[in-house]
Design goal:
Length: about 160
C-alpha cells in the first residue's frame, strides 16, 4: 500500500484531479466511482468532522470488485489522500500508480507522501508530522500503529 496527500482546495482543482484519475484508470480498464455532491452533503450534515469535498474509488470490475485506489479528504478537508492497494494484479496496480502519480506530482508539486502504518492503516492526520519527504508518524504516537500494541486492530488488519 502507498498513500499521498494532494492539495485540492477548490472545486476546479478537484474536478481537474478527477479528470486525470478517470483518464489514467481508463487506460488500465479500471472503473471509477465518484460520490455525488448530494452524497457528500449527507456526510456534511452529520457533523463537521465528517465533511468531505471529494470521495472516489478506483476498482477493477467483475464478479468481485477489486479496489485499486481510494481518494478522500474526509478528516482533512481540502487535502485529498489517495491510497493505493497492491491489488490482485500487482503489475497493473504498479503501472496505474506510477502513471497517475507522475501526472499528480507534475500538476500538484505540493503533493506529500503519507506513511502506511504497520497495521496497514493510514494514520490520523493529527498523529503525523512533516518530514523532508512528506509526513511521518509522530514518534510519541507511533505505538497506536504498531502490530501488537495498536488498540483494537481491525480483524482484517495487516497484523493478523
Amino acid at each position: 500500500m502507498a498513500a499521498f496527500e494532494v492539495p485540492l482546495t477548490t472545486a476546479v482543482e478537484r474536478a481537474n484531479f478527477l479528470t486525470i484519475l478517470k483518464a489514467e484508470a481508463a487506460i488500465e480498464g479500471l472503473d471509477v466511482n465518484i460520490e455525488t455532491a448530494e452524497e457528500m452533503d449527507r456526510w456534511n450534515e452529520m457533523g463537521l468532522e465528517l465533511s468531505k469535498s471529494i470521495e472516489a474509488t478506483v476498482y477493477r470490475s467483475g464478479d468481485i470488485r477489486q479496489s485499486e485506489a481510494r481518494v478522500s479528504d474526509q478528516h482533512h478537508l481540502g487535502y485529498a489522500w489517495i491510497s493505493f492497494e497492491r491489488g490482485e494484479d500487482p503489475s497493473l496496480a504498479q503501472r496505474f500508480r506510477q502513471r497517475l502519480m507522475s501526472r499528480i506530482f507534475e500538476r500538484w508539486p505540493g503533493t506529500l507522501s503519507v506513511p502506511v502504518a504497520q497495521t496497514g492503516s493510514l494514520p490520523h492526520k493529527e498523529d503525523l508530522r512533516r518530514s523532508d519527504r512528506g509526513y511521518e508518524i509522530d514518534p510519541s504516537r507511533i505505538a497506536g500503529y504498531i502490530c501488537g500494541t495498536a488498540p483494537g486492530n481491525a480483524p482484517k488488519s495487516a497484523c493478523d
